[in-house]
């Protein structure tokens, strides 16, 4: 029998025990959103310049949105990006398990 206290536990439980679950979740969410916007841009053949123009924002603001490490993106910016690629943002509140 192993003395490993993490054996069989969920990864989220481990992150919670380490006190980093929220931070890791936020980073992962931002990376996924940035990737989704970038993929949608490619599907539509949008350059960064065209995308920024469609969003009525600067290319620097778009670069921040696409930067997986930059975490201060507003819902308004995400909404503009989604609309520019023919999509919409969907956000749900879910119970904490």
TrEMBL record:
Residues 23-92 form the HigA2-like helix-turn-helix domain. InterPro entries: HigA2-like_HTH (IPR039554), Lambda_DNA-bd_dom_sf (IPR010982). One of its GO terms (molecular function) is DNA binding. Pfam families: HTH_37. This is HigA2-like helix-turn-helix domain-containing protein.
